Amino acid sequence: MRHIQPLSTLLLVFAKLITVRASETMTNVSNLELNGIDISASKMRHIKGVSLMLSSLCLVNTLSQHKQVLKLPCLYNFASFKKSTHFPFFNLSQMSSTSYFVTGGNRGIGLALVKELSSDAKNTVVATAREPNSANDLKDWAVKHPNVKIVQLDVSSSKSVEAAAEETAALLPDGLDVLVSNAGVLKDIGKYLDHPDELYIEQFNVNAVGPVRLVRAFKPLLDKKDTREVAVVSSLVGSLNVELPVGFSGYGVSKAAANYIVKGLIQELSPEGYSLVAVHPGLVGSDMGDDTFVQLGNEVSGQLKSALPLLTPGESAKAIKENVLTDLKAKNAGKFLSYEGSELPW
Ligand SMILES: NC(=O)c1ccc[n+]([C@@H]2O[C@H](COP(=O)([O-])OP(=O)(O)OC[C@H]3O[C@@H](n4cnc5c(N)ncnc54)[C@H](OP(=O)(O)O)[C@@H]3O)[C@@H](O)[C@H]2O)c1
């Protein structure tokens, strides 16, 4: 470190000298032709000046990180420059694009997540629908946002999940950054003993086994990137440590199983660099939320709404993006989180 400070100053003086020399040379040139395009000498001076300034900053940056003193990671090399996460003025990694795969993207929280994530044109969002032909809201959004691609998917079928993974691999040849398992069903929530076997099985199939099928089929695509992030939209009702005013029978069981599965996948996949979270999206006025209020009746749904804020799908999605998906790896991996980022008991 003692040698780095004076060396850094020396190199800066050197860069300054080159800049002056370059300016002198450029004033003697009236016009240049670069790749067939005429560039005036004054524009060329600007380009040269900016390049030299960046080179100097990169040198100082490299030195301040006291890595290899004379290795110039970004002198006119914008590919390695992009990787310089310690750049002093702005972090280019935050400006890079992210690819998302969102299930159940045709309505409710899923559609709102697709809108939220694809509003940044640098991101690519693959959104799924069981019936793309009738997914009008999603199709309308995709027409105006070419960074949204629609893929058919039914998470209750391994065949369908594998086909979706294959189609997505063609859309994202460089791999997938973030998998968001959002699709879910809530059937009749009556009493446990009155709840039919078929409904236990159907909700378990979609809400609990669905995320396993997804991670299994999409792992080769996630493996291609270092990001390797998975968010499973679960529910507070899946927590074994929260007292609820009513039982959620087959749905609650399936979400408790989904949490158990996320915990298991965290254990299995963390050593491979994966970051997983389970997310409670809040009490949301989607089709599912509205159906639930009808099933619960006015009195209980009134109690629920006065105890918990009722969110729109858009509010839930925005909060999930900001508090859970952003910095997932750094802050949130391995947790069961509420949409506002607070930790919930599994
Ligand atoms: N709303 C709430 O208050 C609340 C609270 C806690 C947790 N959640 C969870 O949040 C997630 C999203 O719920 P939401 O409120 O947005 O519900 P929603 O409005 O009913 O939407 C559910 C989405 O899941 C899709 N889906 C259902 N079964 C599927 C299957 N077998 N394969 C693929 N997609 C399927 C639906 O597609 P189709 O249009 O084809 O049916 C739809 O896109 C769910 O996992 C839910 O359990 C919601």
Low-confidence stretches: 1-45, 54-94
- Give the topology string: H per helix, E per strand: HEEHHEHEHEHEHEHEEHEHHE
Task: Count the beta strands.
Answer: 11
Q: Given the structure, what is the number of helices?
A: 11
* CATH H-level homologous superfamily name of the largest domain: NAD(P)-binding Rossmann-like Domain
CATH topology of the largest domain: Rossmann fold
| Main sheet attributes: strand count, strand direction, barrel closure | 7 strands, parallel
| Beginning-to-end CA distance, first to last residue | 47 Å
User: Helices and strands: which structural class?
Assistant: alpha/beta
Distinct ligands, ions and cofactors found in the model: NADP nicotinamide-adenine-dinucleotide phosphate
Strand content: 5-15%
List the strand order in the largest sheet. 5-4-3-6-7-8-11
Structural shape: globular
Helicity level, as a percent range? 40-55%
Average predicted confidence as pLDDT: 81
- Based on CA atoms alone, the radius of gyration comes out at 26 Å
